[in-house]
Amino acid sequence: MQAGDKLTFLLSLVPYLIERDRVSVTEVAEHFKVAPQQIRDAVSLIAVSGVPGETTTYQSEDLFDIAWDDFLDNDQIVLTNQVAIDDSPRFSAREASALIAGLQYLSALPENADRSAIASLTSKLSRGASAVPSQVAVEGSETDATLALIRESVAAGVQLRFDYLGSRGQSESRNVDPLRVESIDADWYLRGWCHLREAVRTFRLDRISNPVVTSEPMSHNPADVPLPDTLFEPSPDDLVVTIDVASAAEPLLADYIPDGAQRSERDGRVRTSVRVSHYHGLKRLIASMPGVATVIEPAEAREAVARWAAEGAARYR
């Protein structure tokens, strides 16, 4: 083994041993696909390695150490002293919990159908935190069953068939090659190649019904189809609505504001325009930004939002 290869091997071996309380020489040799004697030689070298202390001399606590009786008599490797590794910054229990929750969220997305790497990282975060992370879980939702079928479709490389309620209230059967799942606030969207439209389309998961994993192979996958950065693509049929919005909240509407839209700012509010496929979508958009965004024109847009808000308020009387 060349010097460079030997160094790379040692740099891989040390964290492998640190992650395990006890491991046999045979198991380590099988993992790294080397001879058992090479593992024994490497462990003996690790045991005389370390970082010099403040006096620039090596004391016993400055060196790695192993349980020598176990090593010599039982061919078992147990690190009893770790150098420098323990001095490195660690995530707090709260930080590790937040990261683990994020990883659980990622594991639910269909593009992460092979979740072994995520599971491994979650385990490392749990072991490497400064304290035991809190038990956390991502709350389930009504769309979980659909997400599970999308994952199954991607893993099997086959199309997904479902009935979709369009923006105009019409229902159509679609065959789709799932490409990506994204969320905005509480809403989930599937972006995929629609075989009916022969183009990329975006589908809201709560408008999907009767999803079925088919046996028909996908003809498009994420590597083949460039997806735009924005979730919503303009359409000639879009409705343009003028709104006032707090300047700090304007970036939240970036996907809805058309290119070249006129913009004016006064007293911390911005007047601009957004495009929506129908007024029902506009109602949901404005409702998600109470007190932050106001519809200015056209009059029918203001009326649609005001009527919807009044009907909602009436339910609380």
Order of neighbouring strands in the sheet with most strands = 8-7-6-5-9
* Overall number of strands: 13
Name the CATH class of the largest domain. Mainly Alpha
Largest sheet descriptor: 5 strands, antiparallel
CATH topology of the largest domain: Arc Repressor Mutant, subunit A
Categorize the overall geometry.
Answer: elongated
Distance between the termini: 80 Å
Layout of secondary structure:
Layout: H1 3-18, E1 23-24, H2 25-32, H3 36-46, E2 65-66, H4 68-74, E3 76-77, E4 79-81, H5 93-107, H6 116-128, H7 144-156, E5 158-165, E6 171-184, E7 187-194, E8 199-204, E9 208-217, E10 239-246, E11 264-266, E12 269-276, H8 279-287, E13 293-297, H9 299-314
Antiparallel strand pairs: 1-3, 2-4, 5-6, 5-9, 6-7, 7-8, 10-12, 10-13, 11-12
Question: How is this structure best described in words?
Answer:
- By secondary structure, the protein is of the alpha+beta class.
- It folds into four domains: 85 residues, Orthogonal Bundle (Arc Repressor Mutant, subunit A); 36 residues, no CATH class; 74 residues, SH3 type barrels (Roll); 76 residues, 2-Layer Sandwich (Alpha-Beta Plaits).
- Helices cover 34% and strands 25% of the residues.
- The protein contains nine helices and 13 strands.
- The strands form four sheets. The chain has a five-stranded antiparallel sheet with strand order 8-7-6-5-9, covered by helices on one side. A four-stranded antiparallel sheet has the order 11-12-10-13. Strands 1-3 form a two-stranded antiparallel ribbon.
- Strand 5 and strand 6 form a beta hairpin.
- Helix 5 runs antiparallel to helix 6 and helix 8 crosses helix 9.
- The longest helix is centred in the N-terminal third of the chain and has 16 residues.
- It starts with a helix and ends with a helix.
- Pfam families: HTH_PafC, WCX, WYL.
- It comes from Glaciihabitans arcticus.
- This is WYL domain-containing protein.
